[in-house]
Amino acid sequence: MKSFDIELVGKIGSMALIRKAEHDIDYNVFSRIGRELQPGMIWVSSGAVEIGRLDYIKRTGRELEGPKDNIMTDYSAQGQAILMEEYRRYIPKAYSVRQFLVEHTHFNDAEKRKNIYEALMRCVEQKAIPIVNYNDAVSFEANRCWELEQLRFSGHERVVECIDNDETASVISTLVHARYLLIFTSADGIYLDPNNPATLVERVEGKDEEELIAAIDELQSHCIGASRSGAGGAKAKLEFIKEPVRQGTTVMIASPRYSIKEVLTGNCPRTVFQIR
């Protein structure tokens, strides 16, 4: 029987936090997630850049112009404060809320990984909810690519890139040895045909880690495209979850239209990856 340090690592993408037609935050999603978070859970949340963009447009009536890296930095810095404000608004008042802004360098260095692990473990003891996001405000693309190239050149066996928060959530899940990894996405799970919701794959299982990874490899062959520019898509998600799966974590991919409890108990559509 495997033991786990953390009950759940969850992740939600940017567009799941937005009412796209109204160009505004979806407060219902923040409310639904926030009221369910409790000590022993770690929440990885995208959304700072998009929320910062919407807030800037509301205040000025226009979008920022200039180099893409500068725009991402400025929107992210503006959106982070709002993102944390909304989580604090809906997470039960009995719990503290703590922000963790991480970068790829933190996971490619043993001492920094240890520091993150210990800080996340203290959150459980101190009844605090960690909200994690990639630190877009200071980690611009050109610099990140150079740093990753240097890590590969120096002989790192496995380089963590954190190219999106699906990978960040998977890396954190592996770090803290979570029982569950929940990835909220714009779909109800993984489809054999992304244009046909009837092809939802409900379960991907194996008798051991090796058989389960082989089943994930097979499923990846059916995955194409992504929901938006900059997103990794289903194929990338499946690649990222392999490491948590290897250590016995049960992975679930579902829509944020449903509560965390509904997903964990199987009372909604979802795709589950687990060892039988």
Automatic annotation (TrEMBL):
Domain of life according to the entry: Bacteria
GO molecular function: glutamate 5-kinase activity
Annotated TM spans: none
Keywords in alphabetical order: ATP-binding, Kinase, Nucleotide-binding, Transferase
Keyword Nucleotide-binding: yes
InterPro entries from the UniProt entry: AceGlu_kinase-like_sf (IPR036393), Asp/Glu/Uridylate_kinase (IPR001048), Glu/AcGlu_kinase (IPR001057)
Protein name: Glutamate 5-kinase 1
UniProt organism field: Sporomusa sphaeroides DSM 2875
Biological classification of the source: Bacteria, Bacillati, Bacillota, Negativicutes, Selenomonadales
